[in-house]
Amino acid sequence: MLKIALSKGILYDSSVDLLRKSGIKIEELEKSGRRLLISSADNITYILARPADVPTYVEYGAADIGFAGKDALMENETDVFELLDLEIGKCRFVLAQPKAGLQKTGRDYQKLGQLRVATKYPVVAANYLSKKGIQAEIITLRGSIELAPLTGLADMIIDLTTTGKTLAENELIELDEIAKCSARLVANSVSTRLKYEEIQDFMKRLKV
C-alpha cells in the first residue's frame, strides 16, 4: 500500500488530471466529496491535505510520497527527497513594489525608518533578504499581499505570481525574480528504502 499526499485547492485538479493521463485509477478521487482519506483500486491511499501541510505529512511518514508545491517546500524547509518536477502548478516568487516607489533610494528608506516587506512566506523572505544583504522588517500576512504597500503597511512585497496580472492591476512592479516554482514529487526518507520498488513503479507510470 502506497500512501500519497495530495494538495487540496488550486493544485488539486491539475494533480488529479496528471494521474488520469498517467493511467492511474482516480474514480474514488473524483467522487471524494468531503473525505480526506481515500483508498483506490490501485492499492493506493490518498491523503488530501492543505498545500502547506503536504511536506510535513511526507517528512514524518504519514505519507510515503506527495505532490507538493516548491513554494511549500521552500517555506517549510522540510526534510524530504525531491524526486521529480511534475511540471504543474507553475508560478514564481517575486519581489515587487509600487510604481510610485521606484524613485526611492536607500537613503529615502533610511529617513522613513526600516524597510518593511510584507509576505505570506516569512522563511522564504528572510532567506532571500539575507542573501541579498538587505535589512528589512518582515510583516507576515495571510490575505491579499498586494494590499500592504497600497495602504502604507509595507514598502515591498514578496509573493507568488503566475501571470503578473494581479501585480499590474494593483500598480506593482516586479523588482526581482526570487525562484521559479512548480509541484514536485517528494518522498519520505525511510519510504524510499522500504518501498523503493513501489515508488519507482509509480514514478515510471507518471507521464510528466
What does this structure look like?
This protein has two domains: 2-89 and 182-205, Periplasmic binding protein-like II (D-Maltodextrin-Binding Protein, domain 2, 3-Layer(aba) Sandwich); 91-181, Periplasmic binding protein-like II (D-Maltodextrin-Binding Protein, domain 2, 3-Layer(aba) Sandwich), CATH 3.40.190.10. The strands form two sheets. It has a six-stranded mixed beta sheet with strand order 2-3-1-4-11-5. Strands 8-7-9-6-10 form a five-stranded mixed beta sheet. It has helices at residues 12-21, 27-30, 54-59, 70-76, 106-112, 122-132, 147-150, 165-169, 191-194, 196-205; strands at 2-7, 37-39, 44-49, 65-69, 81-85, 91-98, 115-119, 136-140, 156-161, 172-181, 183-187. The radius of gyration is 20 Å and the shape is elongated. The chain has ten helices and eleven strands. A hairpin with a 4-residue loop joins strand 2 and strand 3. By secondary structure, it is of the alpha/beta class.
